[in-house]
Amino acid sequence: MNDQIFRSGFVSLIGQPNAGKSTLLNALVGAKVAIVADKPQTTRSAIQGVLTTDHAQVVFIDTPGIHKVDSPINRHLMKVLRSSLDERDLLLFVTDASLEFRAPDRHALDLVKKWETPAILVLNKIDLLRDRTKLLKMIESYRVAHDFSDYVPISAAKGENVDVLREAIITRMPEGPAYFPREHISDQPERFLAAELIREKILAVTRQEVPHSVAVLVDNWDDTPTLLRVYATIYVERQGQKGIIIGAGGSNLKQVGTNARQEMERIFGKKVFIDLHVKVEPGWKEKSSFLDTLDWRTMAGKDES
Q: Which structural domains are found in the chain, ordered by start?
């Protein structure tokens, strides 16, 4: 690569739910900008992460997994996804290398073909493969289905070949300026990341009991040089789900708060106080006005700082 040329561009990550797109985004950027859980529909908004090197700047957009448009929340997720594919220099089609090439993958590829944007096939989770010779068969299946610019097997969780993918991305960026300062890694405000971190800990603590009936909104955000106070409401659809999140004697809610506080302190570099409340909002996934508040661009609540 010519060291005199500075390259920059915009790259969207697309693929089936649970393919590891958020884990990959964090690995590419080198910092946690998107929450991670072993469940589909973890990502609900278009999360931006920025990678800046001496010779390039790449703006990544993580997108919700591809869903059937059969409910208001899935329509919302697909709307977010489609808006994240416009005017991109490159797409990363992320797939789970431990799974066979299936009909849903062909459906997902149809979206890639519609945008006619150069795409790299990222075969993620190769650490789960006992026989890596199967990768050749999978690559051939995708090669027949679509003409990708490159094929890169990786393990985002283990960091394997992430540097190879990063270089393959940068070499495909056009010559251009840096759009953000070098220290900039994400466009999302800290209060949105805080809400997402709380939701991530809920998914981990409750496991399959409360899959995707949870939303978190930050009501108040009081940020001082030495202490951050976060007041947030956890929304569920049914009274029984509220009981599960709170847990016996408040044990689950306390664990969620502790886990979220510890990670926020690591990320934000200061002491954090978290005040959590759980509220039942029947059918929130069917209400477009409520779904809009889940995007940080329209998040409800007032800053107290």
A: 7-170 (3.40.50.300), 190-303 (3.30.300.20)
